[in-house]
Amino acid sequence: MDQAMANILAPSNGILKQAIMDLKEPVIFRGILKDEEGCNIWKFLDWNLTELAEKLGDMRLPFRTGFNGRSKEPQWDIKCPTQTMTMQRFLEESYSCDRPEKWYYFDYKYMHEWLKDQPEILASVDWRRFGFDAWGEDSTLWIGNKGAHTNCHQDSYGCNLVAQMHGRKQWFLFPPSCTNALQPTRIPYEESTVYSKFNFFCPTQKDEEAIVNVPERPKCITLEPGQVLFVPGGWWHYVESLDLSVSVNVWLPLPTDCEARLREALVKLIATRLGKGCLNSAEEPHSTLHRSMKLVEACLHEVKANEEPVESPSKKKAKAVTWTAAALSKEYPKHVSLLSELNTKELRKLLIEKRERFSVSNEAASDEKCAQVTEDSNLSESSLDQISKAVINSFCHPDIISRVAQLVIDSNVTA
């Protein structure tokens, strides 16, 4: 394609779909959610926060809450208390002061569950521009104020498209090859999520040293309204709201997901049998040994069903051109951008800033709050001591689980 023309034309739906399935590193899509006249394709982008609050009306939303202060470990999702309020009340709380003591996060909420009586909002999200037949019903909604964050983690399967609707979100991304260096942990346990032990929200000096010594440099981006971030499968990411923000995402399946689901079923089997208190109280009654084994059986059946017969050389089709992030950004420079890579000095500066934004004087109070939350969540050290954590994390380490899953697949078991 002529370079001058590429600066004008946006990639087609088909090219975007193929590229998303091909790409092995993240990219930013700009202007994809606008038509040729520069108008928003998604109606959601036309609404301001007050209008969104009016549309949600008196619907009470559960916001995960945390504190803007120092803590020795991450503020784990499962340990955070929940506060229920309307969107209007959330806006009032968020705007009440410049340096709020708490952050609030309506996170990881499937729109079809929470907005089933809001067809206008559901219809305002349409992923067909990226070549996928997915809508608001297939998406999740994230609403948070300054400080709301998702701890550094790796999704077990699928890839991710994230559209920023309002405000700004800061993203740190590490490639899958950094898994061991980021010290993966499955405690607290969350299905399909492998956490890093490091506290990116307010890193200790020990965290800082470990993070800057990760072999590969992280990519960093501040996502702005109208931009869409593509997160490839297996990439680690830490996400933080820099101000009041709203975003929508969709997880897209990958051909390797059936094997990933088997690995995840094995993790759940180990975590729920060896680690009393790993699951939240609502999920624990449904995680008996029988149920866990049936899940493994179902996932193994899926793997076996998806095994493709080896084609003879004469029947093999010519492989289509595979998109890389560099090639896509070069072909469509106006609409596709690579993410900046932080050097060691830049990364250390950002980590120090995150720690020093909270005064040392609030550290004791923060630790007291953290201890109270831990006690309230029934996940205290008395029920899950350090030895059991080490055993579970060793058995559930991504390298070990991958090997176990492959041995199960290769066995003569008939699923």
From TrEMBL:
The keyword Cytoplasm applies. InterPro entries: Cupin_8 (IPR041667), JmjC_dom (IPR003347). SUPFAM superfamilies: Clavaminate synthase-like. Keywords: Cytoplasm. Residues 107-269 form the JmjC domain. The keyword Acyltransferase does not apply. Pfam families: Cupin_8. It is found in: Cytoplasm. One of its GO terms (cellular component) is cytoplasm. Signal peptide: none annotated. May play a role in cellular stress response. This is HSPB1-associated protein 1 isoform X1. It comes from Cephus cinctus (Wheat stem sawfly).
